[in-house]
Amino acid sequence: MIAEAGLEALWLAAALALAQLLFAVVAVRSQPEWSDAVRAVAVLQGLLTLFAFLMLIAVFARTDLSVALVAENSHSAKPLIYKLAGAWGNHEGSMLLWVTVLAMSGATLAAFSRRVVERTLIAALGAQGALALGFHAFLLFASNPFARLSPAPAEGRGLNPLLQDPGLAFHPPTLYVGYVGLSVAFSLAVGALLAGDVDQRLARAMRPWALGAWIFLTLGITAGSYWAYYELGWGGWWFWDPVENASLMPWLAATALLHSVGVLAARGALKAWTMMLAMIAFAMSMVGTFLVRSGILTSVHAFAVDPQRGTFILILLTLYTGLAFALFAWRTASLKEGAPFELVSRESGLVINNLLLCVILGIVFFGTLYPLFAEAATGEKLSVGPPYFDSVAGPIALLLAALVGIGPLLSWRRQSAPFARKLAVPSLAAATVLVTTIILAPDMRLLPRFGLAVATALAIASLLPLTGRNFLRVPLATWGMAVAHFGVAVSLAGMASDSAFTRERLVAAKPGDTLQVGPWSIQLHGLAPTAGPNWTAIEAELRASRGRGVEVLKPQTRYFTDPPTETNEAAILTRLNGQLYTVIGKPTGDGSWQVRLWWKPFVTFIWLGGALIALGGVLALAGRAFKGWRPFRRQERYA
Amino acid sequence: MKPKNQRLLLVALASVALIGAAMLAMWGLRSQAAYFYTPADIAAGKASTDRAMRLGGMVERGSIRQLPDGVTVTFVVEDGGAKTPVLYRGIVPDLFKEGSGVVAEGRLRADGTFVADTILAKHDERYMPPQLGDQAAEHKSGETVRE
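YS: structure for the whole thing
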C-alpha cells in the first residue's frame, strides 16, 4: 500500500510538472493571470514528490521485502539508521532524492521568491517544471523505486558495508541539495533570458540560491573527502575518481557563479557572463549525475553499468543544456550593456577569478571525460589519474589561491589609490616560507612548497579587508568573504603539509613489536576478535606514544555476512598538529600481521578549511538575509 | 573603457582562457594518461616502460606469493594465454583472490615485471570495471571461435 501510494504520488507529480510547464507558457505568452496557477502547481508538485520520498523511507524503515529495491539493498538485521539511509544508498532511491530536491527547490522558489520580476519568475518556474518533467519521466520509466517483487524473498541482500557508516546518512543528501539547488539558478537564468530582464534584481534573487547550493556542495565535498579518507583505509583524501570529479565540477562552476552574480548584484556588470555560468553550473550537476548514475567510467563508486539509464540521462542532459545554450545565443545580443569598469578594479579581479575557475573546470572536465572520448575515437582504453590532475590543475589552482588574496583589496569600478603596499606583509611572509623550506627541506616537491607559501600569504591577506575597521560594523557579508578566503588558505596548508610531511610505515609485525613512524613509537600489543550488529572483526590493539602518555588505537578488519565482504576500519588518533592513521591488514602466516601506519602533520586542516569556507558562505547568506528583513528599506530601494 | 570594447575584451579573454585550458589539458593527457593493457598487449610489445599504466586480467591460480617481509606480494596476471608477473607492496584489497579479476596501476619494469602502486579488485559483487567486462566478453567470444 505504502509503495503504491508513493508511486501514485510520483505519477501525479509528473503530470503536475507538465502542467507547470504548460501554464507557464500560457502565462508568459499571453495571459499573466495564470501566474498564480503556476505557483500553486509548483508548490503542489514539490509536496507530492516529497510525499513519495517519505513513502520510500517508510518502506525501508519497515523493511518491506516485497519492494524490489528494499529486498536488494536492505536487511532486517541492519541498524535503523542504516535502514533509513539505505533508502538513498542505491540508484533508484538516490534519483528519487534528486528529483525531490529539484521539485522542492521549485516549490520554494514559487512560494517565497518576491524579489524577481513576475514574468521572469513565471518563466523560471516553467523551466523548473520542464526539468522536473524529464527527471520524473526518468524515475517512472527507467528507475522506478517502488517496483514490487513477487514472491517477496525471506530476507534482503543487505547494504554494501562500506556504505554502512554515519557519513552515508548525510553525505548524499547534502551533495544533492547542492547539485540540484543549482537548478534554480539555471531556471532563473532561462527565465530572465526569455523575459529579457537580466538586471540587479535578478542577481539578488539568484545569489542566495547560488550561495546556498554552493554551501551544501562545499560541505558535501568536504565530508565526502573525509569519509573516503577514514573509510577506505588508503590514507588518501582525494583520488580524482570520476565520482569525486562529478561533485567538484559543479562546485567550481558554482564558485565562479557566486562571485560573478555578486558583481551583477552590486554593480550591474557581467550580465551575459553570469547567465552563462548559471547554465554551466547546473549543466555540470547533470553531467555529474550522468557520470555517477550511468557507471560509464571506472570508479570505486560505480553501480552496475546500465546503458539504458545512462542514455536516458544523457538525452535529458543534451536536451536541457542544448536548449539553454541556444536560448543564450539567441537572446544574449539583446541584453543591455552592463556597467563599465576599469582594467584595475574589483570587477576585473573577479573576471580573472572566474576565468581561472573555468580553466580548472575545463581541465577537470576534459580529464574526466577523456577516457570516454578516447575509447569512442580510437578504441583505446585508458584512465586519467592524479598525475594529470595534480600537474595540470594544481599550478593553476595555486595561482588562483594567490590572487584570492589580492582581489578583495581592490575597489569597485576603478582602483585609484595604490594598493601594492597592502601586499607587502603577505608577500614577505610567503618569501620567508619559501626560503625556510628551501633551507630546511630541500627535497620538497614544488607544488607543496609553493602551496605552503601561498597558503601563508593568503591567510594574512584574507584578513586584511577586516583590518582598520570596527569589527562590529563590518558587514556580515564581508566577514563571510574573509572567513571563506581564510578557509581556502587553511585547506591549502593542510594539503601541502600532508603531501610534503607525511611519514608512512608498512610492515609485518608480531604482537609485542614496536614500530616507529614520525615522532610516534607504536607497539602492537595484541589482536582479539570482536563483533558488531551485523559483522565480526579482528581488532588490533596499538599503543602509541610520543614522549609522555600512551594512547590506544584499535583498527579492525571487519567481516560482513550480508553481503559477504571484508572492510578495513582505520583507527585514527587526532592531535592538534596532525593525525596518526593506522590500518591492520592480513595475517602473514607466521604469526605476524600487516600493519600500515601514517603520521600526517596538519592533515585535519584540509577539512577544517572546507568547513571554514562553508561557514563563510553561511555568514554571507545570513548577512544578505538580515538586510532583506528590513521591509521598509527594501520597498524604498525597489520602488 | 567603453562598454562595447569591454565586452569584446571579455570575450577575447574568455576565448584565450578556454583555448589555453584545452591546450593544457591535451598536453597533460598526452603525457599523463594511463593506458589500459592486458598481458597479451604487453607480450605483443604495445606497452612502453616509462609511463604509468593499468594492467588488467585475471589473477592466475596458485600464483600469489608473499615475500619474507610480509607486506610484498607477487602474482601473475593472465588473460587466457599471455602472462605478466606483478610485484605489489601494500595491503591487498578484500576481493583480491586467485582466479578473480584485477586491475593494477603502476609501471612496467624493463625486465617485464609490472610494479603496482595500487590494486583494484571487484568493489562488490555488482561492480566490475567496464574495461574488464569488455575483456571478459572478448574472451568468451574467442573461445567459441576456437571450439
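YS: worth flagging: Chain B touches chain A through 51 residues (CB under 8 Å).
IM: good catch. Also The helical segments of chain B are 3-32, 39-43, 130-146.
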